[in-house]
Amino acid sequence: MPKTLKSDPSDVRARNIRAVFRLLFPAEQMSRAELGRRVGLSRMAISEVVGEMTENRLLRETGVDSRSGRGKRSVMLVVDPDGWRIVSIDLTQQFVIRGALVDLCGRIVDRVEIPCENMGDVPLEIVGELCEKLLSMTDRPLLGMGVSVPGVVGQDGTVIRSVNLGWTNVPLRQRIETRFHVPAVVSNDTNMALLGECYFGDCSADSVFIKIGQGVGAAVCVNGEIVEGCGYAAGEIGHVVVDPKGPRCVCGKRGCLEALLSVSYLRERIDAEPEDRTAILSEAGQRLGRALAMTVSLLDLSDVSVFGPPEIVGEAFIGSMREELESCISADYRNTPSLHRCQQGDDLVLRGQAVAVIRGLLDSVHSRGLVEDVVHFTSEGEQSHHDPDEHSGKSGD
Ligand SMILES: [Zn+2]
């Protein structure tokens, strides 16, 4: 949808707030003068923007710039980790639902897990229960809630289809917002892992992220934006046939990427022929490299990240994947993409989902006061205990 080009003062203000936050998130520090230069604002204008952001505890001042050395010392600004909390839920694990309280720098400050026997039929109630538990563990104001779901999620936060959870057309975002009276974001899990890797790991703004687990999924980021696709199913590459003579897949087809690369399939083969372990993993890496060559070339991506259990996605896998990728796409007009194993561990999805909540808030900043944007939402319900002013002086979670 084309955006209008009108530029009223509140748009400019919102854009400046976003620009300042992006420069500092998650762990940069800059002086007012440097921020002003980078955003293109006068001394007075940047002071005003920063003033509003510190007042609302998005930023805080910190010591002095150690880089400035002799002479005048300047106060530095950083993202304030203590002003707000985000509830982040990860529905991708087997037999357990994980949730965390995350600070504004994307760090996990507390966590809760609820065991879930039958992941193929997860009751919605259990998600609400986990949110309740996490809320009871903090006295900070809540910026919002985010839930990562293995499956196809529409723009309105409806889970269109999650085979793993047994959900079809579940209006999850709406349910959470109605119950908890805070903004909620519901996202595809692999997209959130990519977002986490971009901010806390090694991905650049043009990258593809591959997640190998019980299934195989991908997420693509172009120019810093995650590609969703016309039906929100971008990255659902698990059931694309790469070897028509390959093994039968759960979906009924033969030789899907997932049938050849899922962790359970590879473990089964290695258990049957332990002496062929390296050969099996090299072959798997080669297949993935070949399958991705077209995507990487089509979009001219600079990074490929692979996430999976270390005993599967190890040297043999990554080495032969790199070799295949390079030999498939080599050309004198193209840079070879960098390929690496994602090192962020199991918290990647939780942290990436928290980033999506923060970005969601910043995108919705308009003419009202920053905090008002959240509080207004909150006060539509009866949960006035999320009023940030009430708690801004308290400490401890
Ligand atoms: Zn399949």
From TrEMBL:
PROSITE patterns: ROK (PS01125). It comes from the Bacteria. InterPro entries: ATPase_NBD, ROK, ROK_cs, WH-like_DNA-bd_sf, WH_DNA-bd_sf. SUPFAM superfamilies: Actin-like ATPase domain, Winged helix' DNA-binding domain. Belongs to the ROK (NagC/XylR) family. This is NagC/XylR-type transciptional regulator. It comes from Bifidobacterium tissieri. The lineage of its organism: Bacteria, Bacillati, Actinomycetota, Actinomycetes, Bifidobacteriales.
